[in-house]
Amino acid sequence: MLNFLWLALGIGSLLVALVLCLVLLRLNRTLAVMEETLMTADEAMKELVPEVKAAIGNVNDITAAVNVGLRAAGSGTARLGVDLGERTARSGRGLKAAMFGARVAIATLTNAGRKPETLPRKAASGGRSDG
Fold it and tell me: What burial letters (b/e) apply to 59-94, b meaning 16+ CB within 10 Å?
């Protein structure tokens, strides 16, 4: 009976070892697939990083153009003076000048990367009223 127990223990140990080998082989295949996936993702990220940097550079350029446009609009508004309401009530020229400045600022912002276009202007009225 003792020999049968030793034989059963030996066969059981071999079965456990065989199952462990199969589990380790399965783990090896899984880790190989995982490694390949990570290497592919790493290569993709290496290709994507310069594109992201370029996009961030474009955002910085757009922000700089917006800042230039806002400065231009701010300086044009400052030239009109603090009492904009009184001036526009007396004359429509102040409001027209402000609208022209706003159009130029918007054109500057929209054409930041292109050649600037000239906006149509009225002929000088020689100080006469536009009305």
Answer: eeeeeebeeebeebbeebbeeeeeeeeebbeeeeeb
Residue 128 lies in a domain: no
Question: Is 131 within the bounds of a domain?
Answer: no
Q: What is the residue-level pLDDT of the chain in tens, covering all 131 positions? A: 788 899 999 999 999 999 999 999 999 999 999 999 999 999 988 888 888 888 888 888 888 888 887 887 777 666 666 555 555 555 666 677 778 888 888 887 777 655 545 556 565 565 555 54
Q: Containing domain of residue 101, as a range? A: 2-110
Query: DSSP label at 126?
Result: T
Residue 118 included in any domain: no
Domain count, the chain: 1
The candidate with the shortest Cα–Cα distance to 122, out of 102, 98, 100, 90, is: 100
